[in-house]
Amino acid sequence: MKTRDLVHVALFAALMAVLGLLPPLALPFIPVPITAQTLGVMLAGSILGARKGLLSLLLFHLLVAAGLPLLAGGNGGLAVYVGPTGGFFVGFLPAAFLIGWLTERAWSRLSVPLAFAINVLGGICVLYAVGIPWLAVAAKLPLAKAALGSLVFVPGDCVKAALAASAAVTLKRAWPLIQPPRAASPAAPPPSSA
Prior knowledge:
Largest sheet: 2 strands, antiparallel
Order of helices and strands: HEEHHHHHH
Shape: globular
Oligomer: single chain
Strand content: under 5%
Helix content: 55-70%
């Protein structure tokens, strides 16, 4: 990995920490607050791609696991993983990877609507698929109640997906950090039989 790539990974881990400084909005009916950090997950995948996006979130996980209070509300340490928000936190990893992987595959035709769909799939569907069952177990809630309570996050997460999509397409044009997929090298011509 090049030095530039390491800087990008560290920069997005720092972005996640900065987004954690924004105060979370607590909801009375579910023990999961509204935070800005899911926007960071979407941006990491959309702008860095699968590998670097995942690495930036892994670095962020290591810092939080080491006890740094980088999550929204000043949370950190290993206890985060077993709490009601632990599934969403763990879901950051596959969400960023999937967003990055799909963005890389769609690179040549990436548009805001396509990038939005990719961010919804990874940043909402995958994140909720990991976070909601975890929430149900940790908070001792029926799965249906945990899922229903999580629906309140969807409109805000759609706004975050739109912001991430717009940023990804703008940066693709101005300063792309994801390299376009390489075309397959042409096969060598068969040796002549003369």
